[in-house]
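User: quick one, sequence for these tokens?
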């Protein structure tokens, strides 16, 4: 399952699986940094590999933003409170505090649970994904000095969200490249009450 497909993710996906092994794509919202690489996948799928269409689960508005062969995908619109299955995984969705309709994802399978915040401001919390999260990926776009400037979370707010949700492991992601990782780690860990992890390309986080 390919969860959000921003620039660079198609190349990294192929470090782990072949494109023919992909069972589904989940896109959380219409901002381009979360979907642009599906266009490259569509070209490879239809014109090079001749693959069968792949299921895509996404908010209603997103399909109209993409310019690609329709035969690459089977689209299913999802929204707040919806539940779907992808193979052995059960997915549920929660609308976050962001501009366009944006869906956080709870992925559950084999007795383990992953939570993914997608993009959100602090008016939404990881608690909305329900209890029992074993690992949470939470956006932490900037630091506390920029809180309130956009509908995103700071590292401090992400740490608080993880602590309030009772998450044992919290990985901060979606960090602006101008924000030093060390400061994000320090601020997030203080709010979380224990060390957080900073998402890095190529790292693996067992659930």
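Assistant:
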């Amino acid at each position: 399952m390919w969860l959000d497909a921003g620039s660079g993710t198609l190349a990294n996906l192929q470090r782990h699986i072949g494109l023919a092994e992909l069972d589904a794509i989940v896109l959380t919202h219409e901002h381009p940094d979360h979907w642009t690489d599906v266009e490259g996948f569509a070209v490879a799928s239809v014109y090079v590999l001749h693959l069968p269409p792949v299921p895509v689960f996404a908010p209603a508005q997103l399909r109209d933003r993409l310019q690609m062969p329709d035969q690459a995908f089977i689209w299913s619109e999802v929204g707040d409170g919806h539940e779907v299955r992808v193979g052995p995984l059960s997915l549920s969705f929660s609308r976050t505090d962001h501009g366009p309709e944006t869906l956080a994802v709870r992925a559950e399978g084999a007795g383990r649970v992953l939570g993914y915040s997608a993009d959100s401001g602090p008016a939404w919390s990881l608690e909305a994904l329900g209890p029992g999260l074993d690992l949470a990926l939470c956006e932490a776009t900037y630091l506390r000095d920029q809180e309130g400037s956009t509908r995103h979370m700071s590292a401090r707010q992400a740490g608080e969200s993880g602590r309030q949700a009772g998450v044992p492991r919290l990985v901060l992601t979606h960090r602006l490249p101008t924000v030093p990782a060390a400061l994000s780690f320090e601020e997030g860990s203080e709010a979380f009450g224990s060390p957080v992890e900073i998402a890095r390309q190529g790292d693996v986080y067992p659930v």
